[in-house]
Design a protein that fits this description.
The complex is a heterodimer of chains A (484) and B (231). Chain A is an all-alpha fold and 484 residues long. Helix content of chain A is 43%, strand content 2%. Chain A has one domain: Glycosyltransferase (Alpha/alpha barrel), CATH 1.50.10.20. Chain B folds into three domains: 66 residues, no CATH class; 71 residues, no CATH class; 77 residues, no CATH class. Helices cover 74% and strands 0% of the residues of chain B. Chain B has 14 helices and no strands. In chain B, helix 13 packs antiparallel against helix 14. Classes of the chains: A mainly alpha (484), B mainly alpha (231). Chain A: GO terms for molecular function: protein farnesyltransferase activity; zinc ion binding. Chain A: Keywords: Metal-binding, Prenyltransferase, Repeat, Transferase, Zinc. Chain A: Belongs to the protein prenyltransferase subunit beta family. Chain A: It comes from Aegilops tauschii subsp. strangulata (Goatgrass).
Chain lengths: 484, 231
C-alpha cells in the first residue's frame, strides 16, 4: 500500500492564503528590440505557502483541476486505508470476470453511438482482443474467424489496413490489425497478412525526412514512425530502406524536458515518448537519445495520485500506465547494472548484428556483414533479464489502476469521474501487466507476491513492451514470420 | 479554410482536420499566418494545452512566420497560468528559434532571471525548473558556473528543505561538478547530520539519500540514481 500526502476534500487548516501577488519591481530590460518580453513572471496561487496575504490566492486552471482530481483520489484511498484487512483484499482485487464480459460483449456488439469510431474498427478489435489476452481469456473459434475475416476485408488491395472495409490504408489501423492478428495467433490469422503489399505500402508512406506519414498525404509524426517500425519488425519486413533516417527524426523530437514529442519542438508527451523509445530500440539506435534525461522525465510523470500523467503539470490518466510505464520499463531493460564496467549508465546496445547470411533482405550471402537482423532485436530484447529494478513505483501504479481505474460493472477508465471505454481498458490492463513484471530481475522467472498489489490471482499475462502484444503470442509470431 | 475552421472548432482533438488545415495553409502561404495564429489562439483560449493547436501554431510559425508577438503571447499565457507547461514549451521554441530574438545565447541571461523568479513564487511548479535546465542544454559547464542557479536552489531549500525539484536540480549540479559553497554544505548537513569533512562526491550521495526520504514515490529512481554516482 502506498500512502502519500494528497489533498483531501476535507477542509484543511494549513491551506493558508498565499502571497498571490505579483513580484514587485519593474520589469527587467528586454534583450530583444522588437519584443516587449520584459515582464516579470506571474504568480500562481501557492496554497502550501504560509503567510499573511491581504488578498485571496488566485489559483490557476492547472491548480484547480489538479486539486479536484487529488481530492477524488484521496477519498478513494482513504476508504482503502481505513478498511479492515479482509475488506482491503477485496478492494484490491482485479475484477476479471466483469472486464472479460465487458470486452467480449463489445466484440460482438457495440451501441450506435460507436459510429464515431467507424474509422477505427481495427483499433476496437485490438483494444478488446488484446485486453482479453492479457486477462488470459481465449476467444471462441467462431469469433476468432470472424475477426480474421473482418480484418482481411480492411486490408487494402495495394497493402496496409484501413479503418474499415473500403477505407484508405493507415499506419495506425495497420498496427492495430496486425497486433490483433498476432494476438489471435492462428495459422489462419498470421497468414492472412499480405506482407509484400504491407512493405510496399510502408515504403510509400516513407517521407524524404526519414519519418513516416500515417496515410497517403497524411501527417508525419513519431506515432507514424512507431506504428510502421513495430509492424515491420513484427512481421519481419523491416530493412534498411524502411529504417533509414527514422532514428534521426525521432531523436530530433526529444525535448529539453527529456521526454519525446510528436514532432520536433512540440511538447514532451507520454504517448510519443513510448512510441519514440520503442521505435529506437527496434531500430537499434537508442544511443541517439539522451536516455538518462528521458528516464528522469518519465519518472517525474508519476504523481501523488500514484498513476502517470501524460505531460508535465497535466492530469493523471490510466492509459499512461502503459505509455509511461512501458517506456520506463524499456529504459530499465536497457540499463546495465552498477557492477558492469560502464561508469555512467550507458544503455547496453543490443547486438543483433548477424554475421551469417539468410537474414538480409537482399538475399546475399555475406561472410563478413554488418546487416542488422531487425526482427531479432525484438526477440533478443526479452531474452535478457533486467539488471536493475523498476525505475518507477510499480506498487503505486498498481494501486491507481486497481482502485481508481477499475469500474465495478467491468472495464477500466482514465480516472474517477470518467466513463470506461475499450481504449482505457486495453491500456490500463497493459500497464498493470508491465507493472507486475517490472520487478523481475536476474534469474527470477515470474513475478513474486511482493511485486504485486492484491491477491496473486491478479497476475496478468506478460506482454512484450516493444509491441504491446502478449509475449507468448509474440514468440509464436516470431517463429512463424522468421521461417517465411 | 473558414469551413474547415468551423469543424476544427467543434472537434479540436481530431487529427485529420488539423492536418487538413496545415495542408490548406501551406497552399495559401504566408498570407495565412495571421488568421492561423488567430485561430489557434481561439482554440487555446478554450483549452490552453490542446496538443494539436500547439503543434499547428508551431508549424505556422516555422513555415509561414508571425514570430513578432509570440514571446508576448507566452507571457500572457503564463500570466494566466504559470503552470501551463505547453506555454513554457512554446517559450523554449521562441527563445531558441525565433529569427528576431538572437537565439538562446543572446536570450539566456534574461530568461534565467525570468525563470528563477517564477520558481521563487511557486517552487512546487515543475515547469520552470525543467525550463531552467533546458536553457543550459548541452552546456553543463555554463550551468554549473551560473551562481544564480545554485543560489536559487539554496534559497528554495532554506524555506522548504523538502522541495524535491530543488534537491533534484542540486543533485544534477553536484554531479556535473558544482563545488558546493560552505553555505550549501551547511544546509545539506543540517538536513542530513552528515560529517562536515565530506568531499563533494559524498555530498551528492547525501542529497540522493535525502531525496529517497522526501520523495518516496520515486525511491526506486533515486536508489538507481545513487548507483550511478559511485564511480
Amino acid at each position: 500500500m502506498v500512502r502519500l500526502s494528497l489533498r483531501s476534500s476535507r477542509p484543511h487548516g494549513d491551506r493558508a492564503p498565499s502571497r498571490g501577488t505579483q513580484p514587485s519591481g519593474g520589469p527587467p530590460a528586454s534583450a530583444a528590440p522588437m519584443d516587449s518580453s520584459s515582464q516579470s513572471p506571474p504568480a500562481g496561487g501557492d496554497p502550501s505557502e504560509d503567510g499573511a496575504a491581504a488578498e485571496l490566492p488566485r489559483l490557476t486552471v492547472t491548480q484547480v483541476e489538479q486539486m479536484k482530481v487529488e481530492a477524488r483520489v484521496a477519498d478513494i484511498y482513504r476508504v482503502l486505508f481505513d478498511a479492515a484487512p479482509n475488506a482491503k483484499s477485496v478492494m484490491l482485487e482485479l475484477w476479471r470476470d466483469q472486464h472479460v464480459e465487458y470486452l467480449t460483449k463489445g466484440l460482438r456488439h457495440l451501441a450506435p453511438s460507436f459510429h464515431v469510431l467507424d474509422a477505427n474498427r481495427p483499433w476496437l478489435c485490438y483494444w478488446m482482443v488484446h485486453g482479453l489476452a492479457v486477462l488470459d481469456e481465449t476467444l471462441d473459434d467462431d469469433l476468432e474467424n470472424d475477426i480474421v475475416d473482418f480484418l482481411s476485408r480492411c486490408q487494402d488491395k495495394h497493402g496496409g489496413y484501413g479503418g474499415g472495409p473500403g477505407q484508405l490504408p493507415h499506419l495506425a489501423t495497420s498496427y492495430a490489425a496486425v497486433n490483433t492478428l498476432v494476438t489471435i495467433g492462428s495459422e489462419r490469422a498470421l497468414s492472412s497478412i499480405k506482407r509484400d503489399n504491407l512493405y510496399k505500402f510502408m515504403l510509400l508512406m516513407k517521407d524524404k525526412s526519414g519519418a513516416f506519414r500515417m496515410h497517403d498525404g497524411g501527417e508525419i509524426d513519431v506515432r507514424a514512425c512507431y506504428t510502421a517500425i513495430s509492424v515491420a519488425s513484427l512481421v519481419n519486413i523491416l530493412d534498411d530502406e524502411l529504417a533509414k533516417g527514422v532514428g534521426n527524426y525521432i531523436a530530433s523530437c526529444q525535448t529539453y524536458e527529456g521526454g519525446i514529442a510528436g514532432e520536433p519542438s512540440a511538447e514532451a508527451h507520454g504517448g510519443y515518448t513510448f512510441c519514440g523509445l520503442a521505435a529506437m530500440v527496434l531500430l537499434n539506435e537508442v544511443e541517439k537519445l539522451d536516455l538518462p534525461s528521458l528516464i528522469g522525465w518519465v519518472a517525474f510523470r508519476q504523481g501523488v495520485e500514484c498513476g502517470f500523467q501524460g505531460r508535465t503539470n497535466k492530469l493523471v490518466d490510466g492509459c499512461y500506465s502503459f505509455w509511461q510505464g512501458a517506456a520506463i520499463a524499456l529504459a530499465q531493460k536497457l540499463m546495465a547494472g552498477s557492477d558492469e564496467q560502464s561508469k555512467q549508465s550507458q544503455p547496453s546496445k543490443l547486438s543483433s548484428v548477424d554475421d551469417s547470411c539468410g537474414t538480409s533482405s537482399s538475399g546475399l550471402a555475406s561472410e563478413k556483414s554488418s546487416i542488422v537482423d531487425y526482427a531479432k532485436i525484438g526477440f533478443d530484447f526479452m531474452k535478457q533479464s533486467n539488471q536493475i529494478g523498476p525505475l518507477f513505483h510499480n506498487i503505486a501504479l498498481q494501486q491507481y489502476i486497481l482502485l481508481c481505474a477499475q469500474v465495478p460493472e467491468g472495464g477500466l477508465r482514465d480516472k474517477p469521474g470518467k466513463n470506461r471505454d475499450h481504449y482505457h481498458s486495453c491500456y490500463c490492463l497493459s500497464g498493470l501487466s508491465v507493472s507486475q513484471y517490472s520487478a523481475m530481475t536476474g534469474s527470477v522467472s515470474c513475478p513474486l507476491p511482493q511485486h504485486m498489489l492484491g491477491p496473486y490471482s491478479n497476475l496478468l499475462e506478460q506482454i512484450h513492451p516493444l509491441y504491446n502484444v502478449v509475449l507468448e503470442k509474440y514468440e509464436e509470431a516470431y517463429e512463424f514470420f522468421s521461417s517465411e | 479554410m473558414h469551413f474547415v475552421d468551423q469543424i476544427a472548432e467543434s472537434n479540436p482533438k481530431n487529427y485529420q482536420v488539423w492536418h487538413h488545415k496545415r495542408w490548406l495553409a501551406e497552399k495559401i502561404g504566408p498570407d495565412a499566418a495571421n488568421s492561423e495564429h488567430d485561430f489557434t489562439r481561439k482554440i487555446l483560449a478554450m483549452d490552453a494545452k490542446n496538443y494539436h493547436a500547439w503543434s499547428h501554431r508551431q508549424w505556422v510559425l516555422q513555415a509561414l512566420g508571425g514570430w513578432e508577438s509570440e514571446l508576448q503571447y507566452c507571457n500572457q499565457l503564463l500570466e494566466e497560468d504559470v503552470f501551463n507547461n505547453s506555454a513554457w514549451n512554446q517559450r523554449y521554441l521562441v527563445v531558441t528559434r525565433s529569427p528576431i530574438l538572437g537565439g538562446l545565447a543572446a536570450m539566456r541571461d534574461s530568461e534565467v532571471d525570468y525563470t528563477v523568479e517564477a520558481i521563487m513564487v511557486n517552487p512546487q511548479n515543475e515547469s520552470p525548473w525543467r525550463y531552467l535546465r533546458g536553457l543550459y542544454k548541452d552546456d553543463n559547464n555554463l550551468l554549473v558556473a551560473d551562481n544564480r542557479i545554485s543560489d536559487a536552489c539554496l534559497k528554495v531549500l532554506n524555506k522548504d528543505w523538502t522541495c524535491v525539484f530543488a534537491l533534484s536540480f542540486l543533485l544534477d549540479l553536484l554531479r556535473m561538478g558544482l563545488q558546493p559553497s560552505d553555505e550549501l554544505k551547511g544546509t545539506i548537513e543540517a538536513m542530513e547530520n552528515s560529517d562536515p569533512e565530506t568531499g563533494h562526491a559524498d555530498i551528492a550521495v547525501a542529497v540522493c539519500s535525502i531525496l529517497q526520504k522526501c520523495d518516496p514515490l520515486r525511491i526506486n529512481y533515486w536508489s538507481w540514481y545513487q548507483t550511478t554516482l559511485s564511480s
